[in-house]
Design goal:
single chain, 207 residues, alpha/beta, 9 helices, 9% strand
């Protein structure tokens, strides 16, 4: 199986360990991750706030590249996923934009969690579990960008997403219910309002 892969800027820098882990897992599963050629930033950092045109033009270009490869497009970063899904909706006319594009919406855009938690892939993962995480109790945290707004993400269980929970359970651990799994962490305010970032982040740890 071959899938297209958009790592995004963070996985090329501060989240490099995430990228390396994903590549190692997919190698074991026998799934080829084909990184998009000449991809660019999705605009999640600042472009979507400071420039409406760039907010769509940047992710739209990545979609055009991906569509030429004609594979499902997997995205590991929540912010990148949200931006590229927004661009997809704009391309098919569900969001107004002045950006002209050749993208036709012929490929599926998936967050890495949704792809791995599909029934067939869960069964594949289970075959490779050698040391199950028996005894571990884990709560999953998705944040606010993975599932919302559902009109953009197409996530149906946006109030209580389950994809990560399914992966936790298939690895042998116990996924525990947690009502704060989609609360905002304040990440977008990391440079401008540290006080809010700390408050929102601390709230999650306190829960």
């Amino acid at each position: 199986m071959r899938v297209s892969y958009y790592p995004g800027c963070s996985l090329e820098s501060t989240a490099r360990d995430y990228d390396e882990s994903l590549r190692a897992v997919f190698d074991v599963l026998g799934i080829e991750l084909r990184e998009l050629e000449d991809w660019n930033c999705c605009g999640a950092s600042s472009a979507h706030i400071t420039d409406d045109f760039l907010s769509m033009a940047l992710p739209m270009r990545n979609l055009e590249i991906a569509e030429k490869e004609n594979n499902d497009l997997l995205i590991p970063c929540m912010a990148c996923f949200n931006r590229l899904k927004s661009a997809e909706k704009a391309a098919i006319g569900e969001i107004k934009t002045d950006v002209k594009t050749s993208y036709k919406g012929k490929i599926k855009i998936k967050h890495i969690l949704d792809f791995l938690s599909e029934d067939g892939n869960l069964a594949l993962i289970e075959r490779f579990v050698k040391k199950p995480l028996t005894g571990l109790k884990i709560v999953s945290y998705y944040g606010c960008l993975y599932a919302r707004p559902p009109e953009i993400t197409d996530v149906t269980d946006y109030e209580d997403p389950r994809s990560m929970d399914k992966l936790i359970n298939i690895l042998g651990a116990e996924s525990r219910p947690w009502s704060f799994k989609t609360d905002c962490c304040g990440g977008n305010l990391a440079l401008t309002r540290i006080d809010i970032l700390k408050r929102l982040g601390n709230n999650l740890f306190d829960m």
